[in-house]
Write a structure and sequence with these properties.
Layout lengths: L1 E5 L6 E13 L2 E8 L7 E8 L9 E13 L1 H9 L12 E11 L7 H13 L14 E5 L2
Parallel strand pairs: 1-7, 4-6
Antiparallel strand pairs: 1-5, 2-3, 2-5, 3-4, 5-6
Length: 146
């Protein structure tokens, strides 16, 4: 996956979510998140996280400010991940969320949609082993100066 990040990010919200790390490139971690789109839903989506301190090395609860970045190869990468773990619904778009100013937590304090979607997934399919997903996708991040 190729991701282009502009030097100025428009923050559009604040969110708490479970992140399953898949790939790393410097301070950026590409993760998989299950999002509750409808009650009981579990749509898989990619998220990018600016992890300055290397804290996201397993499944973690992350809270942070959200912006949107442009990515290439999302459909192919989602297909590659769905061959490793069961994914019944996918969010395939070239616009993926980037989380900055993050806090890694040991548990969720809220019931945001990024938390409930993951909980819905594990109720249906069980826990995910993140080591199976390592190396499935290559992450290429370029920072553009505007």
């Amino acid at each position: 996956m190729k991701v282009k990040i502009k030097s100025i990010l428009n923050v559009i919200g604040h969110e708490e979510l479970y992140v399953i790390p898949i790939a790393c490139n410097g301070k950026y971690v590409l993760g998989l998140n299950f999002f509750e789109d409808i009650e009981g839903g579990r749509v898989a989506r990619f998220v990018l996280i600016m992890d300055k301190y290397g804290e996201i090395n397993s499944i973690k609860v992350v809270e942070g400010d959200k912006g949107i970045v442009i990515a290439e190869g999302v459909r192919d990468d989602m297909d590659a991940v769905s061959k490793v773990i069961k994914i019944d619904r996918k969010m395939v778009t070239n616009r993926i969320p980037l989380f900055i100013n993050i806090k890694v937590k040991s548990f969720s304090e809220t019931q945001d949609r990024g938390i409930r979607g993951y909980e819905n997934y594990i109720k249906r399919y069980g826990e995910i082993d993140p080591s199976k997903l390592k190396g499935v996708i290559k992450l290429d991040v370029s920072e553009e100066i505007v």
